[in-house]
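Q: Sequence in, structure out?
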Amino acid sequence: MRPSNSPPSTLVDAATCVWNQYYPDDHNIAAVTFLNCFRHGEQWAPLLQCDLTQANATVVWLHYQELIRTGTKDFERAMTENIEDVLLCMGITLCMRRHGLCLEAEEDAARKRNVLVGRTKITVRLHGVTPVLPIAAVKAELVHQFKIKLQEIEATDVGPGRVPRMIEVELYEDLVDSCIPGNVVTISGIVKSVNSEIHGGRYGKRAQANSLYILYISANSVENSAKADKDKASDIDFAKEDLEQISSIINQGDVFDRLVHSLCPGIYRNDIVKAGLILALLGGTRNSDDKDTPCVSRADSHVLVVGDPGLGKSQMLRAVSMVAPRAVYVGGNTTTTTGLTVTMVKDGSGDYALESGALVLADQGVCCIDEFDKMGIDYQALLEAMEQQSISIAKAGIVCSLNARTSVIAAANPSGGHYDRSQSVRENLKMKAPLLSRFDLVFILLDRPDEERDRLLSEHVMNSHARGARKSRKRVRDDCAPTSSWKSSRHANTLPSSNYEPAAESGHRMLSHRLRQNVSEFSIDPIPLYFVRKFIAYARRYVHPRLSPEDATVLQQKYLELRAAGEGDQNSADSIPITTRQLESLIRLSQARARAELAETVSVEHPRDVVDILQDCLRDTCVPEDSSLDFGRSEGMSLAKKVKAYVARLMKAAARRNTSLFSMDDLVQVVDSMALKVDDFRDFVDILRNECYLLKKGPGQYKVQTSSYNMM
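A: Exactly. Output:
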């Protein structure tokens, strides 16, 4: 049986040929909608703005409001639910009425189906309504497209100080998502040009008349160094001559000492600081026992150099940026938070894109930050990058995490112009403790008047200028030419071996004494910076030292000593927390010390040198004049804390002297031994008396009330 709402078969058969023109792929047309259109055709036919008797009429325009007013409620509902199908059915109806097709069943349906409707197809459109165009009907080939901005890296044949050039690159199809911000890529493609107005999204005659064009690259291939070799720390290649020079450096012995004296030889002394910078350049070994475990301890060490102006901090940072295989040098006074991390920008199409900052660009390298104390940014942005080695961002619908596996080497001046030893590093720099604890090594450089040192320093400066005037041309050729050679005739050239083991010494010499003794020998003929850069890149790429059980015992004992020394001052609110972060720093630095000699295993001497460097840092930050380790000095003190620290030192002095009586000179000696900064000492003594810490017993005599040696 036929459904009650089905159209007559004669009408449907007569319209089949017409439907094939409107629906070539879909024959399941709503018959009820078609009947409604056909039956109400007489009502909206007068609204047509063309003569249907003309064979060349192909488009009919109707007004939506007038069409709804002349139709029924069912027709209005059909127009609301599916307007495209209704318009197609109306076009079919017009074609049938044009050729005299009607509902009479007695007419010959076969003859009606042979109407040539291909020449008279009518399209119905509504004023102000844009037709829906399905994607399948679009006669265009869709491909994936991605635009990136490429910035050149510092090459060996390009002088420092030049602004890096940038160019846009278009990636298509399988090249899309082949790299992320911060990756080092090699792109091959075709250089093309585009009108700057059209590139900015503006069209028209004025845009086409513009004569300014922008160059871009249509990429054919993208080689990502991060995907090609995950352990590759730089993009430096090694020729046979480079391997011979590295072998020559190894065969001469005392490799670490030579590297220290070859880093910025123009700066007099500061050998321990240079040693710490060399260790930061070499870095530790990145290991993860389980590849699926996301928690991986960082292998990069961070170094902070703080001191008075004019001591060569910026020069050493410049030397580090020139020696590092991959380095980014920025100034803190001209740096923003987004400039260090990630910038969110909007392109010409209105979409958001990421631009890498200094830390992301220095991935697997070194980021040198000068004037660290003058950074007008929130230091919280550096916490994740320095500890987790990544930068997370969630802005404008973009949620991602970028790698920032870099060593941060910063230089800062004290806020007051000169370093105040009575205050902590944090107070001298106005820096928060969480950020300060991220640095593995903190060096303090003080400009103290010393007649002998000043004489040697002046002689060093004068000799450097005299030597530079005589050998300026030769030095430029030796230091900068890639084809230059630096060899020693005393040693044979062999290929460098990663299993090289240094000779064991009978007794351990302090690193500072050893560097001071051989400065005259190694500073005369330092290793050129070109080969120092090659050596560091070779060590980072091919040498991955591991910690032996004996070295682990040495580092554990040193860590326990620092931990025990910190417990004695745990009641102080300003004490440095000695945690496992310091133990991890010792491990990283010991592995870097082994890399300096291309050793696959950390020997006993390596952690001892690291301990010497760490003790030198603690001597400047935590040790007062009486050589007692006081972690409370590492933090700044308010007046109340100064009073508390001074009273605690008086109690120790009273216990040592077996008396609680002090003269004014004795009180002054105690405050001098603490290097405690007090504006007016007599006012400070009056505060102690008002707080009942001191009791005046006579002219110039004071008694410590809290001492256990109270005398009547």
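The first strand starts at residue 59 and ends at 62.
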